[in-house]
Amino acid sequence: MTVLAPAWSPTTYLLLLLLLSSGLSETQDCSFQHSPISSDFAVKIRELSDYLLQDYPVTVPSNLQDEELCGALWRLVLAQRWMERLKTVAGSKMQGLLERVNTEIHFVTKCAFQHPPSCLRFVQTNISRLLQETSEQLVALKPWITRQNFSRCLELQCQPDSSTLPPPRSPGALEATALTAPQRPLLLLLLLLPVGLLLLATAWCLHWQRTRRRTPRPREQVPPVPSPQDLLLVEH
User: Which residues on adjacent β-strands are paired with residue 126?
Assistant: First the structure.
């Protein structure tokens, strides 16, 4: 039985590999060319805080990893989810104020943040603390929002438990670990490289086989049949 392979050229396989690798790198990108944080975000947060009940219960994370910039983004991700939740139960006036604050932090949805990990713990607090922390995170991010790529922040991280903490390392070991640890997009590209080479080699083999089948083989020369006169000459 003959199996027909798709008539793809080696260039097609190579282009597919490049598109796949570029797509993976794009999904990991989290950067902003223009600042999404307005200059009057503090006014909008204060107007909402004055209108809300100060003791309205909400939850905030208690064991997020201490990261200077990633931590601010992580808290804004969780605060933005609270804004969306509060809009579903608020009146018309409250919805307008919530939407103004939500607009200030909605930029976090442009990045593909993963779901909060199961290790993350929350504590109950009031809405005034949540809004105050939201304002503080925006202040911390505003000078860096267009100068940093936050791709390494897409996964929310918890503080490790004290019982599972590894032994302390020397500064030299920590520096070597930081230098040798590959970034996730580069690791994915390295994993895809052998697959791409295998596909390229397979494509060349299929192309070579099809070319060989199309090349006509030289016909075998059949000796001429001797005539009766030739046979008589041979007998004499």
Answer: 57
Tell me the C-alpha distance between 154 and 148, whole Å: 13
CB-CB neighbours of 108 under 10 Å:
21
* Calpha distance 223→221 (Å, rounded): 6
Distant-in-sequence, close-in-space partners of 9: CB < 8 Å, separation ≥ 6: 203, 207
Distances (CA, A) of 93 to 47, 51, 96, 100, 134: 12, 9, 5, 11, 21
pLDDT > 90: percent of the chain: 48
- Give CA torsion, residues 117, 171, 143, 74, to 10 deg: 10
Structure tokens at 219: 């016909």
Residue among 3, 21, 12 nearest 188 (CA):
21
- As given in the structure block, the two tokens for residue 96 are 């307008």
Beta bridge partners of 138: none
Return the CATH number of the domain spanning residue range 37-151. 1.20.1250.10
pTM of the model: 0.60
Return the DSSP state at 157: -
Q: Hey, where are the domains in the chain?
A: 37-151
